[in-house]
Amino acid sequence: MDKVIESAGEAVADVPSGATIAVGGFGLSGIPDALIDALLDSGVSDLRVVSNNCGVDDWGLGKLLGARRLSRITSSYVGENKEFARQYLAGELEVELIPQGTLAERLRAGGYGIPAFYTPAGVGTQIADGGLPWRYGQDGGVALASPAKEVREFRGNSYVLEESITTDFALIHAAAADRHGNLMFHAAARNFNPQCAMAGAVTVAQVERLVEPGELRPDEIHLPGIFVHRVVPLTEVIKRVEKRTVRERDR
C-alpha cells in the first residue's frame, strides 16, 4: 500500500521510448515539471503525449519538445510555444488538436472504461468531417489528415462520436498525498490532473506535501489512491507564471 518512490528518476525509469503518456496541467499550472525533467534525463524518445498544451519553449513539456523527444501530441491549445509551431509546420511533429472540453471528456471516459461518447462539439467542422492536418510533409502539403467521424442525430440534434483516451503512463502534480496515493489538488492546479491520472495504466504523481494515511479528511481527497500507482514527494517546488502582466501601483 505504500506507494512512495523517493526520486522522480526512479519513478519514471520504466517509461520506454514510444510510450503514450497523459500529462496533467493547464498552461504551467499544475504541471509535473520534476517528472518531465526526469524523463528528459532518462533519454527516452518517440513519446506520444496527451496534454492540454505543450508548456513553453523552456519549461514543462517544452523541454522534451526542444530535445526532439516527442513524436506526437494530442492537445487543445498550442499557442505559447514557438518551437511547437515550427516543428509542426516543418512536418517534424504529429499533432491532433481537440476541443478542450472534448479532450477532458475523452480522458475521463478512458478512466471510467467508457469506449466512446457523442458530443455536439465539432459538428459541421473538420473535427467531424475530417481533413485536419495531423502531419505536414517536407513540401508543406498535408501528409496525414484526421479521418471523418461518425455523426448521428438524437432528438433532432447532431452529435459526433468521440473515442476515449487511455495511455501507458500518466504524469501528474498534486498539492498533497498520503502514502496510499490519495491526492488533494490546490484550486486551479486541479485542472486536467485527475482526468489524466484516471486515463493512465500507470500513474505517477509528484506531490508538494506527503502525509500519513488518515491525515487527509475524506472530503479533502479529490482523487482516490486506486488511480495512483507511485507518489514522488518533491524536495523543491518551482511554480512559474506563464504570462506575467503588471501595472503601476495606484498612488
Write up this protein:
The chain contains 7 helices and 13 strands. It has 251 residues and is α/β, with parallel strands linked by helices. The chain has one domain: Glutaconate Coenzyme A-transferase (3-Layer(aba) Sandwich). Strand 1, helix 2 and strand 2 form a beta-alpha-beta unit. Helix 5 crosses helix 7. The longest helix has 13 residues.
Task: Describe the structure concisely for a colleague.
The chain is built from seven helices and 13 strands. The chain is of the alpha/beta class and 251 residues long.
Topology:
Elements: H1 8-11, E1 20-23, H2 33-42, E2 47-50, H3 61-66, E3 70-75, H4 82-89, E4 94-97, H5 100-112, E5 116-119, H6 126-129, E6 133-136, E7 142-145, E8 151-154, E9 157-163, E10 167-178, E11 183-184, H7 193-199, E12 200-211, E13 230-233
Parallel strand pairs: 1-2, 1-10, 2-3, 3-4, 10-12, 12-13
Antiparallel strand pairs: 5-9, 6-7, 8-9, 10-11
Helix pairs in contact: 5-7
